[in-house]
Each structure stands twice: as structure tokens, then as C-alpha cells.
Specification:
Distance between the termini: 44 Å
Oligomer: single chain
Order of helices and strands: EHEHEHEHEHHEHHEEEHEHEHE
Radius of gyration: 18 Å
Largest sheet: 6 strands, parallel
Number of helices: 11
Structural class: alpha/beta
Shape: globular
Number of strands: 12
Length: 274
């Protein structure tokens, strides 16, 4: 009998989680991947915490019923920091979350000055501050909630040009000098941001190491799959390479072309207004 393929649901508010999907596909080329974007509610960073947590749990409930996944990857820092505990309490399916890579940044920095680029919501979360107190207490950590960086990344993926001056202004606050030392590691605290790494390098005042969490998330997902009894093929589940959108406004040709370029050429809409 053929070996069952793990069916993995990857979830984000928009296109940022595609960076995680790409890493998961490289780690597990045999996996059946379905991507879901809550584009009706994008961007998550602007939402109030309680309302967003309820929204995420509701959307994930609908998606689990639709996809019947073996594993769910919450490929979004904001969603993970506010809703992951609720999701794990509500559903038996295993979840893999995404959190700012503070621990590896603290291990890699030589100057002791770390920048964290994230959404305003992630920057304000107690969970983020707990990571800093636990793993980077000996470092100078510069937190910056970049209000437009995720939108810039989405524009790029859709084939639009980038305003380098706008990008420079968005990332500038994490580049600091202190007592003759300067930022040498920048944590990409939103899964959208790795789409912009090359562009950031062009406008940064000096070279730094950018930490993309996607490879570590992919490895963790593979570990969870190894430990999880697989459900097997389901003829009712969306096909491999399907993106599920929560609003038809995300089905413009440039958007669908962007998803196809990242390995998701099929799409469907489950209308869930924000």
C-alpha cells in the first residue's frame, strides 16, 4: 500500500506564511499542503487582541472542518502569540506556532545589540517580552512595530515595485549604536518579512544577520508529523497546492499569480467577513 501523505494546513492573515510553506515543502516534499489566508481580516496587527483571538479560533474551526489536517501550522506571529493556547485547548489536532526568534538571536549576536522587527501587535504582546526576559536578558533588544512592512511585502509578491525610501524608514529604528556597539542581528518577527530580506540589505545602514524563523518551523513540523498518526487520503479535502481565502477580494489575478508562484496554483473562497 502507498504511504499516506501528511496533510498540513498552513494559516496566516495574508501571504507572509508562504515563506513558511516554502520551507515546509523543502523539508517534506511528499506532504499535502493547503494554505489558508484570512485576507478578509488582513492585517492582523491592527486588531484588538480579544476580538482577534475570537476571530482566529472561529476561522480555524471552519478550516479544520474543510481540510481535515494532520497538523496545523500557524504561520503568523501575531496569531500564534494571542490564540495558540486557545486553539490547542479547543482542538485535538497538533498545532505548530510561530514566535519571534529571540533565543537564536541572543545566541548569534556578537555585539549584544539585537533588533526585532514585528507588527505593532506582536511587539506589544506579553509573550514577546517574556521571550526577551528569558533568553536575551543580557542583550540590548530594540523592539520596533513596523506598521506597513507586511503590506510592502505583499505588494512585492504581487509584482509591484517597492519604495526603497519607505522601506528604509520602516526598518531604521532597529539599527542602533550603543557604547561603540551596533545592531548585528535582526529578528524577522513576521512571516511576511523574509520576502523583503534582499531589499532590506540594500537600504540598511550596515550589514546584519536577518533571522528567518521558517526553517526552524519546518523542522518542528516534520518532527510533529513523525509523532502523529496520519488520517490518510480524504477525497473531500482540498487538493494539494490549494489556497483558501476568506474573502473574494483576494482573488484578483495578480494575487492568484503570486500564490501560484509560491506553489499554490489552485484556490477556493470561504466567505468569512471581518
Amino acid at each position: 500500500m502507498p504511504t499516506a501523505k501528511p496533510r498540513i494546513l498552513l494559516f496566516d492573515s495574508g501571504m507572509g506564511g508562504l515563506t513558511v510553506a516554502r520551507a515546509v515543502a523543502r523539508q517534506m516534499p511528499e506532504a499535502h499542503l493547503v494554505y489558508a489566508a484570512d485576507n478578509a481580516a488582513f492585517p492582523y496587527g491592527a486588531w484588538k487582541e480579544k476580538e482577534l483571538a475570537r476571530r482566529i479560533v472561529m476561522v480555524i474551526c471552519m478550516l479544520i472542518d474543510e481540510v481535515h489536517p494532520d497538523v496545523v501550522v500557524i504561520a503568523c506571529n501575531t496569531a500564534s502569540t494571542i490564540a495558540l493556547a486557545d486553539l490547542r485547548a479547543a482542538y485535538k489536532v497538533p498545532f505548530v506556532g510561530t514566535v519571534p526568534a529571540i533565543k537564536p538571536a541572543a545566541a548569534q549576536t556578537k555585539s549584544g545589540v539585537i533588533g526585532v522587527l514585528a507588527t505593532p501587535g506582536t511587539v506589544s504582546r506579553e509573550y514577546t517580552h517574556s521571550l526577551i526576559h528569558t533568553f536575551a536578558f543580557h542583550c540590548k533588544v530594540i523592539l520596533h512595530g513596523a506598521p506597513r512592512l507586511a503590506e510592502i511585502a505583499e505588494r512585492k509578491l504581487k509584482g509591484h515595485g517597492i519604495d526603497l525610501d519607505e522601506l528604509k524608514a520602516e526598518i531604521a529604528p532597529v539599527f542602533r549604536k550603543r557604547d561603540g556597539k551596533q545592531t548585528d542581528v535582526v529578528v524577522l518577527g513576521c512571516t511576511h518579512y523574509p520576502l523583503l530580506t534582499e531589499d532590506m540589505a540594500k537600504v540598511a545602514p550596515w550589514p546584519v544577520t536577518y533571522i528567518d524563523p521558517a526553517p526552524a518551523i519546518a523542522r518542528r513540523t516534520a518532527d510533529i508529523v513523525e509523532e502523529t498518526p496520519l488520517k490518510g487520503d480524504d477525497p473531500h479535502a482540498p487538493a494539494h497546492g490549494t489556497v483558501i481565502l476568506t474573502s473574494a477580494r483576494g482573488s484578483a489575478s495578480e494575487t492568484l499569480t503570486a500564490y501560484a508562484s509560491m506553489g499554490f496554483p489552485k484556490h477556493m473562497v470561504i466567505d468569512l467577513p471581518a
